[in-house]
Amino acid sequence: xxxxxPLLGIALVVVGFALRFNxxxxxxxxxxxxxxxxxxxxxxxxxxxxxxxxxNRNVTLIYIVLPVIGLxxxxxxxxxxxxxxxQMRRATAGRLLIVYLGFRQIFAALGLTxxxxxxxxxxxxxxxxxxxxxxxxxxxxxxxxxxxVKAMSAATDNVGLFFGEDIFLAVSSILLIQGALAGFxxxxxxxxxxxxxxxxxxxxxxxxxxxxxxxxxxxxxxx
Amino acid sequence: xxxxxxxYVLAGAMFAAYAICxxxxxxxxxxxxxxxxxxxxxxxxxxxxLLGDSGNGVLVxxxxxxxxxxxxxxxxxxxxxxxxxxxxxxxxxxRLFLPALVIPMTAFAGTLLFSYTPLxxxxxxDTKAVTLVLLGAGVILALxxxxxxxxxxxxxxxxxxxxxxxxxGWAIVLPQMLASLGAVFAAAGLGTTIGALxxxxxxxxxxxxxxxxxxxxxxxxxxxxxxxxxxxxVMAAAIGVPILIHGDGGKAAVIGAVGMLSGFCGTLMTPMxxxxxxxxxxxxxxxxxxxxxxxxxxxxxxxLIANIIILYVAGFHL
Lengths: 223, 318
Fold this sequence. Notes:
The complex is a heterodimer. Chain A is an all-alpha fold. Chain A has 2 domains: 7-55, no CATH class; 63-221, no CATH class. Chain A has helices spanning 7-18, 23-37, 42-55, 66-74, 77-87, 93-109, 118-138, 143-165, 172-182, 190-195, 198-221. In chain A, helix 7 crosses helix 8 (143-165) and helix 8 (143-165) packs antiparallel against helix 11. The model of chain A has no long low-confidence stretch (mean pLDDT 90). In chain B, 76% of the residues lie in helices and 0% in strands. Chains A and B meet through helix 1, helix 2, helix 3, helix 4 and helix 5 of A and helix 1, helix 2, helix 3, helix 4 and helix 6 of B.
């Protein structure tokens, strides 16, 4: 007999996020409830949460770049990113982001996933450049358009990363697939797997690239 | 040997500096909330391994308490004004990009240099963390360049870092919290439950429907767990291996790789993948915390359809 009660933890997360409670609180409460329903006592769940938190500190490490980015912003980095774009006559927000998408995918495919990212490149460089390109073409942007250009910059970084990194042989997701299938007696090399990441990578570039061109057109029309 | 722990010491020092800077920022009405939050993170990075599981649990409880009671705020003190920044940008020009590029260049060149030369044999850097360690080296190098060239006040990097970290706020630890939730989900046997649920509705005889169920299962489970890594072993065990590979004779490499990539389409659509979807919204100071996800849905769904076609055609008909 399968125990369905722990599924309630998932429902709590969905409801909590939908009602816009503080996400940290939602996640914490859901973890405790799921653990209790799964038959653990409170201290054991608290310990499991603490262990998970401690084991995953590396996720937060990337923010050691913040002092450098902040310091450069103090001396006009975002303004200079805009100035650079204003010199390029043919640059548009969409075209700029297509170029970034391509580079992000190629670098990720070479295993260089941390050379770019939301803290390292999107906030200080990519988003201000995309905004400058949009402003140059369409004049002063309203608040909602600014929000959309920034969000599209972040989205482009994610798409480039996700659909580039699996082409690299030694990335953790490829190793995970290999390990999981090996558990069923299916032996594959990382190379056999990463080759099959290429068709999806190409589709991702074409689909998101098309959206970026349409994004330019929509900016033009909304003016 | 340099391991990731040296970086933890560095990160701890950074958060401790933010705590002190926050405590002294009189423009922030909630300055002691911020100071406590960043101080606890400093403790986590410095002493996390000594606290034990329960100690870390209590630390998490305190972080959640501070965030849940809305005790985090932001200072209003602008470091330099917009006009000053325009002026600086004209004065320093494109050279301003150089320190920013020092970080990725150090990580890039350093990783290549270390991994493909005899340096690797010296064991100077833990091979599991080469790029991260070199990223840290890049940060220190970039700071040195900035101080030597721009000559900011000594505390400027901490003040500016605090400005940015305050704009991210509690969201900075959400990815870690979600990873803990994933661990609890796994410990409570959620993977087996979902695998069994999916297993009960497997259609007989239709390869295409089985492919569809496998891919959509990856997407939904990824959206719940916040990453495809937790979903893959479950879906492989429930459908991928028994039905698609053994039952219908599909190509294992395609089913493995494209299955995982279908999960990534789910990652684009869920707030549970906070480090990709929620933290950037805070970092870019967006009003809607779901703005990034909204932008991604129209890429994720067509790409998912492409994945279904790739998996079906390349897995069974090539």
